[in-house]
Amino acid sequence: MYLLFCAGYIGILFFMQLLVGNAGLYLPFCAFGIFYLSVADSWRKAIFVALVAGTAIDSLYSRNVIITPFALCAIALYGQFWIRHYNSKHLVESIIPGILIPNALLIPLWLHRFYSTGFSLYQIKSALSMFIFTCAFGAAFLPLLIVTLDSIADLLRMSKYSDAKKQLLESRR
Known about the structure:
The two termini are 27 Å apart. Helices cover 79% and strands 0% of the residues. It has helices at 2-22, 29-40, 43-60, 68-85, 95-117, 121-155, 164-172.
């Protein structure tokens, strides 16, 4: 049942990312879902989903270099770092990964773009505006995603983001 729940929300986030990306905005919805999966359940499942979703995103966007699966894997590992070193009970603390996650995807893409086309004032201005927009979006979207997915997981009696730290500490005993 949990696998179906994960596939459902990752699929919806993947579809949303493609829709918004085709409209010209870069909002890494899948990255937020992978972070949630890594914290709430397992980093191994999150890495598998990251490799599949990242490869699909790069293929559908027709990118020359496959960067996204590796960046998404780094986000899955960051989810494990986050749960081991910070508290998942307070929703306000999820603003920090909400700001950092988009940058983990944008920086490799920018470096590739700057390397392949060279620096220009327009590209720097575009990258800066995208940076500010995605940071603000991530800071607002990740807490909302956590609340939504935690409430659905609570209804289905599955592991939740807000209980992840407690489950981690209990498993160490």
